[in-house]
Design a protein that fits this description.
Layout lengths: L2 H33 L4 H7 L1 H21 L1 H18 L9 H29 L3 H17 L1 H19 L1 H22 L21 H21 L2 H8 L5 H25 L11 H40 L4 H4 L3 H34 L5 H50 L8 H16 L5 E10 L2 E5 L4 E4 L8 E2 L4 E7 L7 E4 L4 E6 L7 E2 L4 E6 L4 E8 L11 E6 L7 E8 L9 E7 L11 E7 L6 H4 L9
Antiparallel strand pairs: 1-10, 1-14, 2-9, 3-5, 3-8, 4-7, 5-6, 7-9, 10-13, 11-12, 11-14, 12-13
InterPro entries: MFS (IPR011701), MFS_ArsJ (IPR047769), MFS_trans_sf (IPR036259), Single_hybrid_motif (IPR011053)
GO molecular function: transmembrane transporter activity
Keywords: Membrane, Transmembrane, Transmembrane helix
């Protein structure tokens, strides 16, 4: 297993372990402190600092990681979670509201530090260029796709530990397990993993794109609509009113979250592209919110009117169908409310997951290509703000208006999200098209050089891999890494194990250098088709880099680029761009370029550099102004 794969598995395992404890501690706090006599509003206030400090951490976490390294911030997050868990093991007399809020503040900081670090660290493990971006897509899909399922599992784990071992023993078990995971990840991850170089200004966190601001507002109300009933009101209602045990409460919430995650992952298959092949649009978000708003309203009506309506409904169904529906006629009010609540929340979970998936798609569709990370960060700050509002209101409204009141407030929040969705562009391309129109118009009015700065790596375009054609023993290896070889030179002899087979000589196919030699040990037995040597042509070295497709207008072979190698940043060199890929990479939307390095350049394959490219369209503003007439609005 190579180092990057091991690091990826280590980071993922650490993130999974943390996610389980994050779900478990939430369930432990809600159920245990309600048992101690805390009012629903007081229980909700226990999570106030958890959400507030989560928002703050979203703002400063990336800034901190860029200075001390992402693997260190990940382990700080784990350590803070261990401290937060152990803080709650003190005697009940110490567990005042302020004390528990402080522990939850640490947990909130820990959660967002760990999430930010784990996801950003994966980026550093996949490398640069198109191949790295393709690998990143797959790695992040595995990392994030499992989050909801594991958080749901955490709800069940917390409730089960509370019922089986008690509150404090449950906390000790969680803290001890996470501490062990932290020690293992510290041992397995090198200190340099995830150290970032790029630093954004703090003011760049806030978006100036209208579509992203409207979408972020809608996201705020969408997630607030969920947490108004989910965080405090629902578990307290199930335990206090319906008489469910801790394990049953945790199991239901766990299954709801896990099911929500599965539906969200399958949302692309449920929402078909339009006639032009485009994905969801602002209209999709609007219609989805309107449909979603019907569900909590229907649940609230069903819970209040269900016991009165059921006898009439049973009588009518019996008359129409002739079926024996005695079991429905004898159902208690609590049983009817339970059926309405569970069935309705299942429908809410399906509709909410689809709405959330549409929002997640639109933020990427609307984001500027060169500010996607900042735009997404702003969007998730709104997401965290919605969770904060929903959490506080969940306890307050449940205490004053009951679960039905929470559901009506949820309906109002969803309608607010629908109202904000009215201003979203009707097609996913509109926001980026308008941004491009503005950019071109500005370029036309103020023609000036447009520079693109990207990372690059040294690669060889002429390579050879030499394999053993037969099984045998290696003899007479005459080269090592870095040696120069000539065409036809014998590099290695293979003495066959089978006496009836002739000796085979491995020869260099052309003049070049040895990049890797895998069979230098005299007498080592090799199997047929074993890789023996990797050769490269030193005169074929290039700097390869990729640029977002929308920024490659006018970039053609023959233009000059400026390169700065990491080892000598103060001494840039000028190179000629020799090749441009004719198609964008399907996974990343980027176009690959190569710049020729001087013959026998003193560089190594894989060496990193920074390349500055001047776009050829910079001085052609007037010629491009006609494009604005064809852009969709």
């Amino acid at each position: 297993m190579n180092t990057n794969t091991r690091n990826y598995l280590t980071v993922t395992a650490g993130y999974w372990a943390f996610t389980i404890t994050d779900g478990a501690i939430r369930m432990l706090v809600v159920l245990y402190f309600h048992q101690l006599g805390y009012s629903p509003f007081e229980v909700a206030m226990l999570f106030l600092f958890y959400e507030v400090f989560g928002i703050v951490t979203n703002l400063v976490g990336g800034w901190l990681g860029s200075r001390i390294g992402l693997n260190l911030t990940m382990h700080i997050g784990m350590g803070l979670q261990v401290i937060a868990l152990t803080m709650l093991t003190v005697p009940d007399a110490w567990l005042g509201v302020v004390y528990v809020m402080a522990a939850q503040a640490l947990s909130g900081i820990a959660k967002d530090l760990n999430k930010m670090s784990a996801k950003a660290t994966v980026k550093t493990l996949t490398g640069e260029g198109a191949a790295g971006e393709s690998k990143l897509f797959k790695y992040v899909a595995v990392l994030t796709g499992s989050k909801n399922a594991l958080k749901g599992a955490g709800f069940f784990v917390g409730a089960a530990l509370l019922q089986g071992f008690g509150f404090r023993n449950a906390l000790f078990i969680l803290a001890g397990g996470l501490f062990l995971v932290m020690i293992i990840t510290i041992a397995l991850l090198s200190s340099g993993v995830g150290k970032l170089k790029e630093k954004a200004k703090f003011t760049q966190v806030f978006s100036n794109t209208p579509a992203i601001n409207w979408l972020s507002g809608a996201r705020f109300f969408l997630f607030g609509a969920r947490d108004i009933w989910f965080v405090v009101a629902l578990p307290v209602f199930l335990y206090d009113v319906l008489g469910w045990e801790y394990t049953a409460v945790g199991a239901f919430l766990a299954l709801w979250v896990i099911g929500y995650g599965f539906v969200q992952a399958g949302a692309p298959a449920l929402i078909r592209p339009n006639k032009l092949g485009q994905g969801p649009s602002g209209r999709t978000a609007l219609l989805g919110a309107l449909v979603l708003a019907l569900i909590p309203a229907g649940i609230a009506l069903g819970m209040t009117q269900g016991p009165q309506v059921t006898p009439v409904l049973v009588s009518w169904l019996t008359e129409v169908t002739g079926a024996d529906l005695v079991w429905m006629a004898t159902a208690t009010a609590a049983e009817i409310q339970s059926a309405v609540l569970i069935g309705g929340l299942m429908l809410f979970g399906i509709a909410f997951a689809i709405n959330s998936a549409v929002h997640s798609y639109l933020i990427l569709a609307y984001a500027d290509a060169d500010k996607v990370a900042l735009n997404v960060g702003f969007y998730y700050m709104a997401n965290a703000g919605g969770r904060l509002a929903g959490t506080v209101l969940s306890g307050l409204i449940y205490q004053t208006q009951g679960l039905e009141g929470c559901l009506w407030w949820s309906t109002g929040f969803v309608l607010a999200a629908a109202l904000l969705s009215l201003w979203l562009p009707r097609t996913p391309q509109t926001a980026s098209a308008n941004a491009l129109t503005r950019t071109i118009a500005q370029t036309a009015a103020f023609p000036q050089p447009a520079f693109v700065d990207v990372n690059a790596h040294v690669e060889a375009t002429r390579l050879a891999e030499l394999y053993a054609p037969i099984a045998g023993r290696a003899q007479g290896c005459s080269v090592r890494e870095g040696d120069t070889v000539s065409a036809g030179q014998v590099l290695l002899r293979i003495l066959p194990i089978d006496a009836d087979t002739a000796e085979h000589q491995v020869r260099a196919p052309w003049d070049g250098s040895v990049a890797r030699a895998y069979a230098r040990v005299e007498g080592r037995e090799v199997k047929a088709q074993t890789l023996l040597f990797e050769l490269f042509d030193p005169d074929s070295l290039v700097l390869r880099f990729s640029i977002e497709g929308s920024r490659t207008l006018g970039l053609t072979p023959g233009q000059r680029v400026q390169a700065r190698f990491d080892g000598a940043p103060a001494n840039p060199i000028e190179l000629t761009r020799t090749r441009a890929w004719p198609a964008l990479e399907p996974e990343t939307g980027q176009r690959i370029f190569e710049a020729q390095l001087p013959e026998r350049a003193d560089v190594a394959i894989g060496m990193a550099a920074q390349v500055r490219v001047e776009s050829a369209v910079a001085g052609q503003g007037p010629a491009l102004t006609t494009l604005t007439d064809t852009m969709p609005t």
